Amino acid sequence: MSDLAAQKHILIGGGSGFIGSALAGVLRARGDRVTLISREAGVGRITWGEVKAKGIPDCDAVINLAGKHILDMRKRWTTAYRDEVIRSRIDTTQALVGAINNKAVPPSVFISTAGKCFYGSQAYQRPEEYFDLDERSKPVGIDFPAELVSRWEAAADGIDLDKVRHVKLRLGIVLAGKLAKNQEGATVDEPASRVGSRGIFPMLHSAFKHGLCVGMGSGVQPFPWVHLNDVIGIFLRALDHTDMHGVFNAVSPGIVSNRAFTGQLASKLGRSMLGCIPAWLIKSVVGAERSTILLLGQRVRPYRTLEHGYQFQFSELSACLDNLLDAEPAQNAGQNVVWSVPS
Fold first, then answer.
1. Beta strand pairing call for 222-223 and 256-257
2. Would you call the peptide bond into 253 cis, given omega within 30 degrees of 0 as the criterion?
3. Candidate from 49-63, 71-85, 235-249, 298-312 with smallest mean pLDDT
4. What is the Cα–Cα distance from 300 to 130, expressed in whole angstroms?
5. Is the pLDDT of residue 279 over 80?
6. Does the pLDDT of residue 47 top 70, yes or no?
7. How far is CA 111 from CA 12, 85, 97, 254, 308, in A?
């Protein structure tokens, strides 16, 4: 069932981040009211302190994207930062779950987010040895990222399912271009228009343009990517379709290896792939615990996402890269276009 007509009031935890600001801009553009939960007060915002002390305002939906990024290269991987990453995800989720459960009239849906790292890490010598992992799969191995995501999801599972529909989105590596526009061609309102300065793709694009076209480790590990348009599209579908509940993978069907991703991006930029950064060097720079995100992988498939009718705008990497590099835009694959990077 779909609930597309009514304007909604949507609360977003972590709404000032890379994905959250983009999502907030699109929701506002379609007429929804958005309130962000942030560390600092402001117009259209409440703070995490207010959530813990007073609860949440009346709203139709709550989305939680809050949490420090495990691969923030500005932060050395110390025990203190490790604990900060854990607290930033679990404490905020527990605060939201408690506030939702305590409301006399709770929101109709709670959308929690986590990562594809839930499935653990596969480590093989050849790409064909990797096997598919979908929403019904159990973790194949527990490393720190998998442990973190498991604890994050466990905190979200405290939601009262008798009162609230719960959708759990597991995100892949989100790729976005330089400037976001909505489907009418207008720039999405601030701060969503700054999304190009966030995420991994602008950094990769800059390095590859300057000839540093390198993969990670063996290069055979899967690279479970997804275009930002499709992430937003899946969020919108989860908000609007009341038959969606449980786990959904926000990962493109056209998964490739790390080496294949590197080679395609290099080729699109008229460069040659130089090889791969050795595993020992990556571990020494980012730390052994979080290096598994880069060196190992999961061949994650969006089985339930497709089963519930979502049509990916970018299901193949070549079309995704063309879009992100401002080439000829790909044809719309369905009715899920959120915005297009300007050509």
1. antiparallel
2. no
3. 71-85
4. 10
5. yes
6. yes
7. 9, 20, 11, 25, 16
* Separation between Cα atoms, residue 108 and residue 250, nearest integer Å: 21
Task: Please give the share of the chain, as a percent, with pLDDT higher than 90.
Answer: 55
The radius of gyration computed from the CA coordinates of the chain, to the nearest angstrom, equals: 19
Q: What is the 3-state secondary structure (H, E, C) of the chain?
A: CECCCCCCEEEEECCCCHHHHHHHHHHHHCCCEEEEEECCCCCCEEEHHHHHHHCCCCCCEEEECCCCCCCCCCCCCCHHHHHHHHHHHHHHHHHHHHHHHCCCCCCCEEEEEEEHHHHCCECCCCHHHCCEECCCCCCCCCCHHHHHHHHHHHHHCCCCCCCCEEEEEEECEEECCCCCEECCCCECCCCHHHHHHCCCHHHHHHHHHCCCCEEECCCCCEECEEEHHHHHHHHHHHHHECCCCEEEEECCCCCEEHHHHHHHHHHHCCCCCCEEECHHHHHHHHCHHHHHHHHCECEECCHHHHHCCCCCCCCCHHHHHHHHCCCCCCCCCCCCCCECCCC
Confidence of residue 204 (pLDDT cuts 50, 70, 90): confident
The rounded mean pLDDT for the chain is: 84
Q: pTM, whole model, 2 decimals?
A: 0.86
**Is pLDDT of 318 > 90?**
yes
Distance in angstroms (rounded) separating the CA atoms of residues 319 and 322: 5
Name residue, tokens 């093989």. 124
Burial of 261 (C-beta count, 10 Å sphere; 0-12/13-18/19+) = buried
Cα separation, 21 vs 192, in Å, equals 5
Q: How confident is the model at residue 335, as a pLDDT?
A: 32
Q: Which of 244, 227, 226, 225 is nearest to 236 (CA)?
A: 244
Distance CA 311, CA 306 (A): 7
Structure tokens at 10: 């949507």
